[in-house]
Amino acid sequence: MSMHGFAVIHPGLEPVVAAELAGLGLEGEIVPGGVRFAADAARVATLTRTMRTPSQMLLELATGPARSPDALGGLIKRIPWKQVLNPAAEVRVEVSTKGSRLHFKDTVTRAATAMIRDARKTAYVADKGARPRVAQLVQVRVVDDVATISVDAGGDLLHRRGWRQDTVRAPIRENLGACLLALAEWDGGDALYDPFCGSGTLPIEAALLAAERPPFGRRSFACDEWVGASGPKRSKPGAPGATPVRAPSHPPAVPIVGSDHHAPTVLGAIQNAKRAGVSPSFRHLDVLQIEPPAVVGTVVTNPPYGERLGEHVDGTYTAFGRVLRERFQSWRVVFLSPDRRLAMRVDERVERLTTFKNGGLGVGVWTFLA
Ligand SMILES: C[S@@+](CC[C@H](N)C(=O)[O-])C[C@H]1O[C@@H](n2cnc3c(N)ncnc32)[C@H](O)[C@@H]1O
């Protein structure tokens, strides 16, 4: 049975994830909410530990028609469970159904849980003493009578990199930060500035990208416990799939700068960068005081959202645009704005690259040349 990976992302950002996969030599099919690609368990585990843009990574174990509990059971039985999950691993089952005969979620969850338990039933074989620690989440999605059975490779959402302590009110998810850098086509070749840096997400993601380091600090993944896709705790440093040992932190080759007008926030960003093992520059500045650290470069930022923070932010957007035109001439600018009206306050020439939902709010990604 051929397996697939499914990289989940907020609708609107699927092409960004597809582009990251393409850069890794994998051709994916874009579907709403993610990108599907052919890959085995070991490949999916490696991608989970190294990709920057997805919010979740699934290993699709089987797909097929499932108009009855028996048909679903047949699919479940054919999955080579022992090739992926440690026989002793606890499995939690989550079901969603849409437009299908199997539509009672609780009934399907109970039936699928029992069928998966039966299909995996086998005497426990000690795996060199490594007992599974995390419950594996198996997702059963039935849409228009077709079931897809997947196991979640991350175990926890992938924006949780393991280096950020949230000290600001509206931090952007780290993988969305990586998506913004990709939309800005920033690859570490020129300077980067985030004048509303908050907890430092964008400069830290940028510094990790520029150093070609994986985005994760200390965290584990459900796939660390998959059979044949061993992870950091079981493999020797440097072995495939192992979390790389953090190299000493060297200053980035190009200026990567974050600033914010709130001093404790800047201190929090510096601490986050330390935990990530990178050293972008952080400064305590109002947006009115910012200066370009290089002649050319890219500004990538998420300015404060009025609705979310309950503030009047029009003046901040106007000031941001004026400062960019005066001091950051010919810099590429990519920023988030909840609507066109605010985006136009920054600059009337703005173009929208895409939209997606951030924390329940629709938000646009806007760009212009300062
Ligand atoms: C939406 S948050 C940015 C979150 C950030 N991307 C992160 O992931 O933590 C906006 C930030 O802009 C800062 N800010 C608001 N007005 C500012 C101003 N006039 N000058 C500089 N920073 C400002 C706030 O302190 C806040 O940290």
- CATH architectural designation of the largest domain: 3-Layer(aba) Sandwich
Number of strands: 14
CATH homology superfamily name of the largest domain: Vaccinia Virus protein VP39
The radius of gyration computed from the alpha-carbon positions, rounded to a whole number of angstroms, is: 23 Å
Question: What is the typical, i.e. mean, pLDDT?
Answer: 90
* Helix-strand category: alpha/beta
Q: Could you estimate the helical fraction of the residues in percent?
A: 25-40%
Would you state the CATH class of the largest domain?
Alpha Beta
Unreliable stretches covering 5 or more consecutive residues: 232-245
Q: What's the total helix number? A: 11
Bound molecules: S-adenosylmethionine
Characterise the protein shown here.
The protein is of the alpha/beta class and 370 residues long. It folds into two domains: 4-152, VC0802-like (2-Layer Sandwich); 174-213 and 245-369, 3-Layer(aba) Sandwich (Rossmann fold), CATH 3.40.50. 29% of the residues lie in helices and 24% in strands. It is built from eleven helices and 14 strands. It has helices at residues 14-23, 41-50, 69-78, 81-84, 105-120, 174-183, 201-210, 263-276, 306-309, 314-327, 340-346; strands at 4-8, 29-31, 34-38, 56-65, 91-98, 136-143, 146-152, 191-194, 256-260, 281-284, 297-301, 332-337, 351-358, 361-369. The strands form two sheets. It has a seven-stranded mixed beta sheet with strand order 2-3-1-4-7-6-5. The longest helix is centred in the N-terminal third of the chain and has 16 residues, at 105-120. Mean pLDDT is 90; it is low at 232-245.
